[in-house]
Predict the 3D structure of the following.
Amino acid sequence: MTWSIVARDPDTGHLGIAVASRFFAVGAAVPYMRGGVGAVATQAFVSPLYGVDGLAMLGEGMAPQAIIDTLTARDDGAQQRQMHLIDASGRNAAFTGAKCIDWAGHIVDADVSVAGNMLAGPQVLEQTLRAYRDLGGAPFAERLLGAMEAGEAAGGDKRGKQSAALVIYRDQDYAWLDIRADDHSEPLEELWRLYQVAQERYLHVAETMPTRANPHGMIDRSEIDRKIASLEAERAASGRRSASFATPWNPS
């Protein structure tokens, strides 16, 4: 199942994984990440230990290729699995087992890798990576989503579509953005909608959350309330409707 992109934004150090599959809730199985440490995608005949232990090894400073060598050497099922990962400095590596279902493979490039199995062909990964590079001026989240869209247009998972996910970590132990479409006929389109909803309120609130450097976060919420109210007024004045399915906002 599945193809994914694992990337590090060299300008910010932010880490991201986007993934799509004809499999339920792929976002619950594939991405593992920690801000300032690294990101791991474990797929094909998934081993969650590749994600859990791989991330722990990244935290200990092991090189990505050494992590792959260690994990696959101890696993009799390794040839049915696939993984790719990147550390906080941009070192990356990938592995595709010989028994992964065709088409299967990976591409590793500077600060990014793409990998997939059960795909329509190698063009899925090629177009995913090309789009990511072509979208270099876009926000990180939009580069990742646009890349996956290009892979889908090139054939995607040869079985069809069901789920997708986008996860981005900044420099903290918690995600800055973590959105999923677990069971949807157009999961990547649904991710775009969720990303639009996140921009209306969620991502502005995310900027106020406590961090290791500032464990208080933003204490006076009136500032963020004013900002969100201003954005909502601007949207209403322009005639744009909210992308959300939520009931109308009741501030009381």
